[in-house]
Amino acid sequence: MRFRHAIAGFAALVTAASGAVVISASDAGAATSGSAVNIALLDIESGVYAAPGRHNDIQLAINQINAAGGVDGHKFQYTPYDTGLTPQQAVTATQQAVGASPNFILGYSVDDQVQASASLLRQSGIPVLAYAQGPAASSTVAKIPNLYTVVPSLVMAIEASTSYAVNKYHPKTVGIFHTEDTASNADAVVAQALLKKKGVKSFVVESASDTATDTTQQVIALKNANLIMSFGFPTVEAVLNTQLAQNGYTGPIIGDQSGNFLAAYGLNTPAELANYTFTTYCYPPAYSSPQATSYTSAFEAAYPSANILTSTAYVYDSVYLMAAAVKSAGGSLTSSKLVSALGKITYKGACGVYHSDANHDLIHQVALITYASNPKQGSLAATYVELPLTKVQLSY
Questions:
Q1: What is the mean pLDDT of each run of 10 residues along the chain (396 residues)?
Q2: Where are the beta strands (DSSP E) in the chain?
Q3: CA angle (35 as vertex; 32, 41 as ends), nearest 5
């Protein structure tokens, strides 16, 4: 990769149950020898949904950590495994990864793949940082006590998008579109239930396959809604947006994390995204925290030809969460100690503050990004913060 230097003055603060632990250039290099921290990256490595940006982010974090001497003498390295799109592909990749005895597993973009790999992950005991966000992929539902989720939970993201939809637009009829995978089906069900609680009484619900290339029938059914919510695979959502515009729909569209891809890879034109807002896993260019600003600068310096919209800062943060866990565990690479450490630490990263709850969800805030004022890159529309006892707040 093209990264050539660590962030000047880098320091990651970690608060553990036993006290404050600081990972910095000085103490990271205090020990000069130790076995490598091996990360298995399980993700879509081939096909239309392959995301090369994740390699940029994992390598960026690894380069920074290693340039600072590692953590307690441990340098970091990673190996990718191709999960494809299907559960069986993920099981095969998981078998390969577990067989190599990594210290951490990072990945899974599809909920079904976590479910299919659950027994392997559970039996391995290896700490898993996952970015599949649906309830089927959660630690408690999949019964994987060594799994932590590093992106906003499905319910939190949809609570944010439905709150935004109702508070800003007051729709009488909401159209809900989703692809037919497990996570997107769940998205549609949760969204409708939450909208009903917020007073919406009229719905039009349409779906399409994960590989659909035409949504004309669905668009005709949806186009008279006051607002449309969209959940699913990026290429299908892109087709929907294009055909909504072609059929004269000019109302608001609120999408899911696929929204990052629509502009980043030119799947939709700026005009087609003019009324589009989405909940993002993480979007540092729109954040004001020092960690987000430093990350954005480092990413752009390391990969000057890459679109920042293709970045996956939650992957970058995940590597630093691993580093924080190793530090909190006193340099131990024992799986049980690392799993325990992940449950205790608090880490401030580019995407926000990470701290585990009872469901092993690590992050408790989600941003909504709009393309209305900045169609090429997007800007912050609202920030949703999850509060204890399911109380929530939405700030603009």
A1: 25 32 35 79 85 87 97 97 93 98 95 94 98 85 96 91 97 97 88 96 97 97 97 94 97 92 88 94 91 96 89 96 98 97 97 94 94 82 74 42
A2: 11-16, 19-24, 37-43, 76-82, 104-107, 128-130, 147-149, 173-179, 202-208, 227-231, 253-255, 276-280, 346-349, 352-355, 365-370, 379-386, 392-395
A3: 120
CATH for the 11-151+284-363 domain, from 3.40.50.20, 3.40.50.2300, 1.20.1250.20, 1.10.287.70: 3.40.50.2300
In sequence order, what are the residues at sequence separation of 6 or more whose Cβ sits closer than 8 angstroms to the Cβ of residue 252?
A: 165, 168, 169, 227, 228, 275, 276, 277
* Nearest-angstrom CA–CA distance, 369 and 277: 5
Question: The tokens of 16 are what?
Answer: 């553990």
**Helix boundaries (H) for 79-181:** 87-99, 111-124, 139-142, 154-169
Say how far apart CA 228 and CA 255 lie, in whole Å: 8
pTM (predicted TM-score) = 0.82
- d(C-alpha 184, C-alpha 212), whole Å: 14
Residue 47 zone, left/alpha/beta (φ > 0; ψ -120 to 50; rest): left
Closest to 335 measured CA to CA, from 90, 72, 105: 105
The Cα-based distances of 248 to 222, 227, 241 in angstroms read 11, 13, 11
The one-letter amino acid code at 302 reads: A
CB-based contacts of 327, cutoff 8 Å, min separation 6: 14, 21, 23, 71, 72
Q: Identify the CATH homologous superfamily for domain 154-280+367-395.
A: Response regulator (3.40.50.2300)
Take residue 198 and report the two structure tokens written for it: 């917020």
Mean pLDDT of the chain: 87
Residue 238's H or E segment, with its range, is: helix 234-246
2-11 in b/e form (b: 16+ CB < 10 A) is: ebeebbeebe
